[in-house]
Amino acid sequence: MPSQRSLIHPRDEIMQTMGRIYGYRMTTTSGGNLSIRDEAGDIWISPARVDKGNLTRRDIVCVKPDGTVDGPHPPSSEFPFHKAIYDVRPDIRAIVHAHPVALVAFSICQSKPNTRLFHQTHTISGQVGFAPYACPGSEQLGKNIAATYAAGCDSVILENHGVVVGGETLARAFERFEAFEFAGKTLIKASQLGKVRYLNDEQLQQAAQRSVDLVSVDPPVATQNERELRRQLREFLCRGCRQRLLISTEGSFSARVDGDSFLITPTQQDRETLTVDDLVLVSHGRRESGKKASRAVLAHQAIYQKHPDVQAIVFAHPVNATAFSVTDVPFDTRTIPESYVFLRDVDCVPYGVQYQNDGKIADYVSAASPAAILENDGVLVTGSSVLDVFDRLEVLESTAEAVINAAVIGHVSVMPKAVIDELRSAFNLN
């Protein structure tokens, strides 16, 4: 993902990013630290012993190249390893260190996640490394971590400690951190289901090399319906990220405006921070000028063309449902009435179907089967409105989590055919 020129002051960027990490429960009140190295060589870093859930811009500390400190607090006790990384990697301009639960689990098992679960996560996480333990804040810890970065690593598990990731901007480092933790969480959940399936080089290339180049056109004046759909999409994208049904670098969400037009998320932009203006109008196979639609745009278009009843679509990566996508374990919705009524039978789409431009992805969903598991790529959900799709996505993820948890308790008992027939009759399910 290309870097962008940041116009946000480092104090505000660190404060906002830490608020997001803390809000996602990916660190604790006392744990974790963020830093940015600016063009002058100053290192802006979160302070020591200040509540991470209540940082203000005034709390952020600036450490000058000569070691002098500007700020009301001492810098994080982990400042030495931040500086050590910057010293060996001039390309890195921002660092995220935290203790997210899944990656901490790997750190205390002296292991690191295999990010070949998904093409996007593998690409974003970069080269994965492991740094041996040393006392927090010590010079030795800095040396251990710097050695892994000097070897070209981008995302590093710290033995019995946590994780540290670097990037060319803080936004990029955050995306890398989030994607790395997502891979770790999915691996843990999938391992509870069965054997985990990873992608080979050819499969990774197949996804990475796909591209979409729609002709651009100046859009007409927005109708009130389009404006309302933009508002709804933005609202549910933010909610989805905050509920961890979506992550900032994965997935696409769209809504039909009319028979031949739909709005869709742009490519390579943080899902949670999108504005109504960022969403891309696609009409008659042409995209709104000045914007670039999600690379999944042709898959969305194919579904709308084949299914006039579909009014909204989401491709997403909620952790528990995505765990099914990386194993051969079938996803059974016959668990509680809500799950079956909302989702019916959920099909599994072979790897790569959604990347093709032949429209075959539309064959895997219908009014009678509105959701599907995408092999090694999360889930696909369709519906009659943006709200309907989001509701189904929530039910899909809740069902997946319940099934995974139930397996720890005992045998999963699904509802028998007589109950399913009763539900189909009671709710007029075709």
TrEMBL record:
InterPro entries: Aldolase_class_II_sugar_metab, Aldolase_II/adducin_N, Aldolase_II/adducin_N_sf. Its EC number is 4.1.2.17. Signal peptide: none annotated. Pfam families: Aldolase_II. SUPFAM superfamilies: AraD/HMP-PK domain-like (SSF53639). One of its GO terms (molecular function) is L-fuculose-phosphate aldolase activity. The keyword Lyase applies. The keyword Metal-binding applies. Residues 12-188, 235-404 form the Class II aldolase/adducin N-terminal domain. GO terms for cellular component: cytosol. GO terms for biological process: pentose catabolic process. Keywords: Lyase, Metal-binding. This is L-fuculose phosphate aldolase. It comes from Novipirellula herctigrandis.
